[in-house]
């Protein structure tokens, strides 16, 4: 039998498990999804839980009902909803400000949920990312450091256990990762990122979402001070000063 889900929020947890398996290729695209009774047995939940989870997954676009065939796993690619762009086109000075607003909106909410939902195992995973980042920093491996930074922030969203929030992250993931690559290409940002990530983990361990949010704001502001655009610096300074007053 597959690892059982927790009874509390069993539907949402099952949704997360299934979406992770779809992204990992364990449920094949355009193939039939397993029967409800089989899923209930595999994951140790009731058929009604499976049915509700499948309904949510259908709403999200991961599953679809085909007459005469059954339930099919769909090829959901939220990033494909966005127009094609060159690698760094999105991060022009006129758009960075608006992207930061969206990132703060999504990630601060992810941190709030993560502070409530995080487990000891997930804390250990985040700490492992930091340990690896320290090694990448010591070796001046900017590419590995950026990939580990991406993994850290992606993990925060998945810890939130909110499938809609995770899908929003998937929609902007490409730009999100380009943004990370840009700001972590500076050595001083790499060094500070390790420290800020450690403080975020401590806030999550303490179940303190407001502290985690404040650290996120300080982390981004510290990195974005290095922007070459005076326009971006001035707008972001206004944004961060305003938002920090609310925390």
Keywords:
two-stranded antiparallel sheet; disordered N terminus; Four Helix Bundle (Hemerythrin (Met), subunit A); mainly alpha; 2 domains; single chain; 247 residues; Arc Repressor Mutant, subunit A
Quick overview of this protein structure:
The chain is mostly helical and 247 residues long. It has ten helices and two strands, in the order αααββααααααα.
Shape: elongated
Q: Report strand %.
A: under 5%
Q: Order of strands side by side in the largest beta sheet?
A: 1-2
Radius of gyration: 20 Å
Number of helices: 10
**Tally of separate domains:** 2
Give the % helix.
55-70%
The biggest sheet, with number of strands, parallel, antiparallel or mixed sense and barrel status, is: 2 strands, antiparallel
Fourth-tier CATH superfamily name of the largest domain? GntR ligand-binding domain-like
- The fold-level CATH name of the largest domain is Four Helix Bundle (Hemerythrin (Met), subunit A)
Would you mind describing this structure in some detail?
- The chain is mostly helical and 247 residues long.
- It folds into two domains: 10-76, Winged helix-like DNA-binding domain superfamily/Winged helix DNA-binding domain (Arc Repressor Mutant, subunit A), CATH 1.10.10.10; 80-246, Four Helix Bundle (Hemerythrin (Met), subunit A) (Up-down Bundle).
- The chain has helices at residues 10-23, 36-43, 47-60, 93-117, 120-138, 142-159, 163-183, 187-205, 209-224, 230-246; strands spanning 63-66, 70-73.
- A two-stranded antiparallel ribbon has the order 1-2.
- The model is unreliable at 3-8 and 78-92 (pLDDT under 50).
């Amino acid at each position: 039998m597959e690892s059982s889900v927790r009874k509390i929020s069993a539907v949402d947890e099952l949704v997360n498990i299934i979406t992770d398996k779809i992204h990992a290729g364990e449920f094949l695209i355009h193939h039939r999804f397993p029967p409800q009774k089989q899923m209930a047995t595999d994951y140790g939940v009731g058929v009604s839980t499976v049915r509700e989870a499948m309904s949510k997954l259908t709403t999200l676009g991961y599953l679809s009902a085909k007459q005469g065939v059954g339930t099919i796993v769909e090829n959901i690619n939220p990033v494909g909803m966005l127009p094609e762009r060159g690698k760094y086109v999105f991060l022009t000075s006129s758009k960075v400000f608006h992207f930061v607003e969206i990132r703060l909106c999504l990630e601060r909410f992810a941190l709030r949920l993560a502070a409530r939902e995080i487990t000891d195992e997930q804390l250990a995973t985040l700490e492992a990312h930091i340990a690896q980042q320290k090694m990448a920093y010591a070796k001046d491996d900017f590419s590995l450091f950026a990939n580990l930074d991406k993994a850290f922030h992606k993990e925060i969203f998945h810890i939130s256990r909110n499938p809609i929030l995770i899908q929003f992250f998937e929609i902007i993931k490409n730009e999100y990762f380009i943004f990370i690559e840009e700001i972590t290409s500076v050595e001083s940002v790499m060094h500070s990122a390790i420290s800020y990530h450690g403080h975020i983990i401590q806030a999550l361990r303490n179940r303190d979402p407001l502290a985690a949010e404040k650290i996120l704001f300080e982390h981004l502001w510290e990195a974005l001070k290095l922007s070459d655009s005076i326009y971006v610096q001035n707008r972001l300074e206004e944004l961060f000063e305003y938002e920090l007053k609310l925390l």
